[in-house]
Amino acid sequence: MAGAKAGYLDGPESQWPAEAWQTFAGDGLVHITVLADEAGEAFDGEKGDAGPASVATAIANRVQDGKWCWLYSNQDQLGSYLSALAGKGVKPTDRSLWPKPACYLWLADPSGNIAAGRWNPPVDPVAVQDAFHGSYDSSTLYVDLAAQPNPPPQPGPGPAPPKPTQEVCQVQLPVLQQGVTSESVRSVQKLVGGIADDAIFGPVTRQAVVNFQRSHGLAEDGIVGLHTWGALLGAPQ
Question: Can you list the alpha helix ranges (DSSP code H) found in 138-202?
Fold first, then answer.
């Protein structure tokens, strides 16, 4: 039959052979476990299977790992499984939230009690087994198996960076010429480079300033004034 398939991972009589999984590889596949194998997406909760405690532990582990899973159960057994799940802090999730990582219900109801309103499950199930066909049964599936869990929300744009501002910094730069001795002269000597920084504006320092002025297209007067200071400090003229 066309449509999704649910096959058993384990069990002495129910385990699907490898060729069955290969045959239906193109269909939506759900792996059912009767032994509470956490590799399965659906946990069989009928009488004679792993039992409420084992199934609840496996389901809680899957949910904690960010995976979805189904609890397959009939009306008679569902209460004991829900109680075991509650002990693990897990409640069944309504199918409207599919495919959020959670535990969903797949209910066996061939009698039609749900449809007739004689059985009201705690949440809407993802599927309801509603018919037998000889050696197999079928369920009405209410969710899209190909759907993927919602991606985590992306952070919104942060606040715009502040616009760069221009600040005016005013400093007093002394006019320096031959004969001056000061720490400002020492700064000039370091900036022009290649001469001793002895803080004494002598003939050697003057010639270094003239050379600097010549290389920067300034008046070659050997005096460190506004424009020469600007060139030395890399400040706009």
Answer: 183-192
Q: Round to whole Å and give the CA distance between 192 and 204.
A: 12
- Residue ranges of the domains in the chain? 5-141, 165-237
- How many Cβ atoms sit within 10 Å of the Cβ of residue 5? 19
CB 73 within 8 A of CB 92: no
Backbone angles phi, psi at 142, to 5 degrees: -110, 5
DSSP code of 42? E
53 contact partners, CB below 8 Å, separation of at least 6 = 84
3-state secondary structure of 226: helix
The residue ranking higher by pLDDT, 28 or 73, is: 73
User: Which residues pair with residue 30 across a beta bridge?
Assistant: 6
Q: Could you tell me the two tokens for 126?
A: 């993802």
Tokens representing 41 are 């997406």
Alpha-carbon distance of 126 to 32, in angstroms, equals: 15
Q: Specify the pLDDT at position 236.
A: 61
Whether the CB-CB separation of 104 and 93 falls below 8 Å is answered with: yes
User: For the domain bounded by 165-237, which CATH number is listed?
Assistant: 1.10.101.10
- Using CA atoms, how far apart are residues 18 and 136, in angstroms rounded to an integer? 18
Write down the pTM of the prediction. 0.61
- Give which of 17, 20, 63 is closest to 38, Cα–Cα: 63
